[in-house]
């Protein structure tokens, strides 16, 4: 036959495989908390909600940028602003109506949370 010989590693030769973690079913309380987060996405613009959802699923930035038609930097900025908007709404803070003010508030929020500004 024309197939090359299969070269097995030491582990494969003895039937050793990596341990697989069993999938653990979520508790009803965890499912309830997850369902609560769906309402948070309604606070966002559709494209921003889509970016947040894809990042929550673990999607990498390149496919996200292709799907929403934005550059990496712009998609990341919209993701951060969307998360800040959710945090502001959950904390009961006033949310700016204009996107530019919301982005400025998000930048200020990130600056305030940076490790350089924390007291030791």
What would you say this structure looks like, in words?
The protein is mainly α and 120 residues long. The chain has helices at residues 10-13, 28-41, 46-56, 61-68, 72-90, 99-113. Helix 3 (46-56) packs across helix 5 (72-90) and helix 5 packs across helix 6.
Q: Main sheet, how many strands, which sense, barrel?
A: none
Rg, rounded, reads 22 Å
What form results from the Cα inertia axes? elongated
Distance between the termini: 70 Å
Write down how many β-strands occur, each being a DSSP E stretch of 2 or more residues. 0
Nearest-integer average pLDDT: 82
| Low-pLDDT segments | none
| Class from helix and strand fractions | mainly alpha
State the share of residues found in helices, binned by percent: 55-70%
> How much β-strand is present in the residues?
under 5%
Secondary-structure element order, as H and E? HHHHHH
Structural features:
120 residues, mainly alpha, 0% strand
Question: Could you give the topology of this structure?
Answer:
Blueprint lengths: L9 H4 L14 H14 L4 H11 L4 H8 L3 H19 L8 H15 L7
Task: Describe the structure in brief.
Helix content is 59%, strand content 0%. With 120 residues, it is mainly alpha-helical.
């Amino acid at each position: 036959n024309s197939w090359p010989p299969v070269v097995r590693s030491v582990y494969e030769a003895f039937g050793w495989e990596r341990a697989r973690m069993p999938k653990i079913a979520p508790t009803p309380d965890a499912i309830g908390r997850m369902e609560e987060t769906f309402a948070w996405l309604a606070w966002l613009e559709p494209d921003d909600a889509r970016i947040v959802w894809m990042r929550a699923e673990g999607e990498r930035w390149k496919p996200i940028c292709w799907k929403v038609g934005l550059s990496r930097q712009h998609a990341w900025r919209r993701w951060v602003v969307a998360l800040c908007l959710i945090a502001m709404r959950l904390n009961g803070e006033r949310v700016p109506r204009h996107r530019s003010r919301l982005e400025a508030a998000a930048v200020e929020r990130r600056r305030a949370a940076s490790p350089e500004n924390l007291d030791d």
